[in-house]
Amino acid sequence: MIGDHDTRRRAPLESGAYPADPRIGAPRRRSGLNRFLGGSPAAVFVKLLFLSVLVGAVMAMFGLTPGLLFWQLYDLTRSLIDLGLDTFHDFGRWILAGAAVVVPIWFIARLLTVSRER
């Protein structure tokens, strides 16, 4: 461990950090813009640029465009809504068909029960 015996380095403080460590002292306050973006504007710009090129290349390989994606998402949503409404429509028909049988039988049973109680 040659680096441990280097006389040019200062010894660590009690906290385990070296005196030149920027984490020591008053904490740096990040600007509102840095907090909002999640980093410096330049770094965020570079990350977004890289991801945009990557996603754009993948979309071009599959022949997709943002407009096509929007319309496919719209069609998918409409299909799911229509499927759900068809299900409720069928469910409503089942309720009415069952009620046409169950309610009269229940009503007759109640009439018979009330007449026996008297």
TrEMBL record:
Residues 81-113 form the DUF6460 domain. The keyword Nucleotide-binding does not apply. The lineage of its organism: Bacteria, Pseudomonadati, Pseudomonadota, Alphaproteobacteria, Hyphomicrobiales. InterPro entries: DUF6460. Residues 1-12 have a biased composition (Basic and acidic residues). Signal peptide: none annotated. This is DUF6460 domain-containing protein. Residues 1-26 are annotated as: Disordered. The chain crosses the membrane at residues 44-71, 91-112. The keyword Acetylation does not apply. Keywords: Membrane, Transmembrane, Transmembrane helix.
